[in-house]
Amino acid sequence: MSGIYIHIPFCKQACHYCDFHFSTSMGKKEAMVVALQKELFLRKEEFKDEVVETIYFGGGTPSVLETEEIQSIIDSVYEYYSVSEHPEITLEANPDDLSTEKIISLSNSPINRLSIGIQSFFEEDLKLMNRAHDASEAENCIKEATTYFDNISIDLIYGVPDMTNERWKKNIDKALSFGIPHISSYALTVEPQTALASFIKKGLVKNVDDEVAQAHFHILSETLEAAGFESYEISNFGKPGYFSRNNTAYWQQKKYLGIGPSAHSYDGVRRGWNINNNPKYLKSIEKGELPMETETLSVTDTYNEYVMTGLRTIWGVSLSRIASDFGQKYHEYALMQAEKHLKDELLHIDGDTLLTTKKGRFLADGLASDLFMVNLG
Ligand code: SF4
User: Fold this and answer.
1) Which residue owns the Cα nearest ligand 1 atom 2?
2) What string of DSSP letters covers 119-163?
3) Is 142 touching ligand 1 by the criterion CB < 6 Å?
4) Phi and psi for 320 in degrees, rounded to 5?
5) Is any ligand 1 atom within 6 A of the Cβ of residue 22?
6) Does 157 contact ligand 1 (Cβ within 6 A)?
7) What is the whole-number distance in angstroms between the Cα of residue 118 and the centre of ligand 1?
8) CA nearest neighbour of 163 among 219, 83, 222
9) What are the beta bridge partners of residue 92?
């Protein structure tokens, strides 16, 4: 099982909180589509023994591409790679791109899953985030999308300054009213070098508050679980049969190829990352050179990543796998570090599996970091 991630590095405008790689200048869009196809060709040997189960268009904003451009990239995947019979093919899309016409043309393409960047149904939140869409576009695009797609996920952001618990609950209820089967939801984080960080520093916007975010997370979990969603990862909630196959494979350390500027790859041993600069990426690919750096993960790196991703998911961390894949000293260390959190009921052990409790879920990243190993090869 393996996947291909394709990064589309363009956005109509910069959201105030975002530190992903994108350009707001669309001048090189066509050249980028050609370059992405060429990178797929250049890297086909890396996946010669793999069957591609998932294809994921992320960004940036993949929905700024015309459907024909998306189709031509998918055609290249099929030309150079072996693709399973029923792959999951996801497109991240923003509401302002999803006209009825676009939704219909996408539904006639191989795309079979839409991940829509709603973030909020409230105008004040969307303005603060500097999203390119407004509240009515958010609602209308979901109504239209559910007519043509069954497998839809939406993104929602909580912990936004001035977002009350009531407004957050209304956001979730609104999302549920459309009958969509998957929601990804993240706490607003203040990344350095973003407009949001600068507004907070100047006192123009209130800072985010961990306690508010935690309260929002509990409202989210309770509301979605009561509505039949399973919290299969700390930020991802799906109805049975609708968990993201792409993300699940990623959390389970499956191989993936990352195509496009800033995209990351993993082959089971090494991580690679492409240059996060569009002109340099284009130039390099034009010359037939991969603009990629790689690092071989040490046993400790791989253990730490396994603990980090495992504790965020319902699959948890297998203690016997720690012993067999990383060695007895890692197994003993993990149990020793987990002891306090087991007593505090933030972690629990079910058979062979170490998991967060309901109480510990929101704290998964901090709990994982307590189990991280340092200074061992
Ligand atoms: S649309 Fe997405 S990638 Fe683009 S700036 Fe906004 S959050 Fe970042």
Assistant:
1) 60
2) E-S-HHHHHHHT-SS-HHHHHHHHHHHHHH-SSEEEEEEE--TT-
3) no
4) -70, -30
5) yes
6) no
7) 11
8) 219
9) 115
Architecture of the domain whose range is 2-250:
Alpha-Beta Barrel (3.20)
Cβ-proximal residues to 239 (8 Å cutoff; 6+ apart), any chain: 181, 182, 228, 229, 230
Whole-prediction pTM: 0.95
Q: State pLDDT tens for residues 165-194.
A: 999 999 999 999 999 999 999 999 999 999
CA of 196 to the centre of ligand 1 (A): 13
Determine the distance separating the centroid of ligand 1 and the alpha carbon of 194, expressed in angstroms: 12
Q: Does domain 299-371 have CATH number 3.40.50.150?
A: no
Q: What confidence tens digit (pLDDT) does each residue in 4-38 have?
A: 999 999 999 999 999 998 999 999 999 999 999 99
Ligand 1 and 61: CB distance under 6 A: yes
**Position 376 pLDDT exceeds 90:** no
pLDDT class for 377, splitting at 50, 70, 90? very low
Per-residue model confidence as pLDDT tens digits over 260-282: 999 999 999 999 999 999 999 99
Name the residue ranges covered by the structural domains of the chain: 2-250, 299-371
Residue to probe by mutation, ligand 1, list 7, 8, 10, 11, most atoms within 8 Å of CB: 11
Is there a common fold for 2-250 and 299-371? no
Which residues, listed in sequence order, are joined to residue 156 by a DSSP beta bridge?
Answer: 119, 185
Give the residue from 78, 34, 75 showing the smallest Cα distance to 52: 78
